[in-house]
Each structure stands twice: as structure tokens, then as C-alpha cells.
Amino acid sequence: MSSISAANTASNLQMDYMKLLVTQLQNQNPLEPLDNNQMASQLAQFSQLQQLESMNSSFAKVLETTERNYANSLIGKEVSFLAETEPGTAETVSGIVEQVYNNVDGQILLLVGGYAPALEDVISVKS
Predict the structure, then answer these.
(1) Which of 37, 127, 121 is nearest to 74 (CA)?
(2) What is the structure's pLDDT at 95?
(3) Whole-number Å distance between alpha carbons of 100 and 77
(4) Would you give the DSSP letter of residue 30?
(5) Which fold has domain 74-126?
(6) 28-59, pLDDT tens digit by residue?
(7) Cα 2 versus chain centre, distance
(8) No. of H helices and E strands in the chain?
(9) Could you tell me which of 50, 68, 89, 92 has the fewest CB atoms within 10 Å of its CB?
């Protein structure tokens, strides 16, 4: 999802705000009531935040699908990437993509010879 933790989503914030609002309404001074415009404005902001979170989640799913499709299109093609050949040394390695898979963290990896570079580590692609 996004960097916002589950405990602080727009829905949870809105529920907390509603609880606070009800408590405030119950304990308000009848001679100085709350400003309705301010309450409506705050509720509208929470609604916008919920919509933005929903769009962010949708875009993340689209990006994930696009990356997976791109990775799958690399099967059978020659790719170049930086690989650690000896401890402390890296060089550009090329090879044919044999397989595409996800590791336990959900990162897309390519199987190229004895290497498993991440999709974002690919430097170039040849047919």
C-alpha cells in the first residue's frame, strides 16, 4: 500500500474525528456553538484523503501489473546487469532470461544463468 500505516488511514482518522466531534458537541457551550462551516470543511478534507488513498492503491496495482508484464516479456531476451562476480567486485554480466519469479518480499527477479538480478537492476535488453 502506501507509507501510511494501517492505523492512520483516512477511514480511521475520520472515525476518530467523528468521535471527537460527538464528544465536543455533547460538551459544547450552548451560548457558543461550533461553526458548521468548519466541521463541513474538515469532513470534506477527510473524504478527499480517502479518495487519494484509494487512487494511490489503484495506481500501485497498475504499476505492479505493468512491471510483471514487462518482466515476462523479457523471457528469451538477452539482458545486461551488474553482478557481484567476486566478493567486493562487480561487473556487467549478460545472459538470456530463462525465468521470472517473485522473491518472498514480492520483488520481481529474473533467472539469468546462475544469477538472479532484480528487474530494476537490468541495464540493457537485446532481442
Answers:
(1) 127
(2) 96
(3) 12
(4) T
(5) SH3 type barrels. (2.30.30)
(6) 777 777 677 777 787 788 788 888 988 999 99
(7) 5
(8) 2, 4
(9) 89
Q: Residue 11 corresponds to which amino acid?
A: S
Kindly state the helix (H) or strand (E) to which residue 69 belongs, with its residue range. helix 36-73
Q: What is the mean pLDDT of each run of 10 residues along the chain (127 residues)?
A: 52 78 79 75 81 91 95 97 86 95 94 94 94
**Nearest CA-CA partner of 8 in 36, 50, 69:** 50
- Write down the residue that cell numbers 501510511 correspond to: 4
- At 42, is the secondary structure helix, strand, or coil? helix
Q: Is 17 helix (H, G, I), strand (E, B) or coil?
A: helix
- Predicted pLDDT at 64: 93
Task: Give residues with Cβ within 8 angstroms of 109, minimum separation 6.
Answer: 100, 101, 102, 103, 116, 117, 118, 119
- The C-alpha atoms of residue 103 and residue 36 are separated, in whole angstroms, by 52
Amino acid at position 127, single letter: S
- Picking from 71, 79, 73, the residue whose alpha carbon sits closest to that of residue 113 is 79
- What cell was used for 63? 504499476
- What grid cell was written down for 100? 521470472
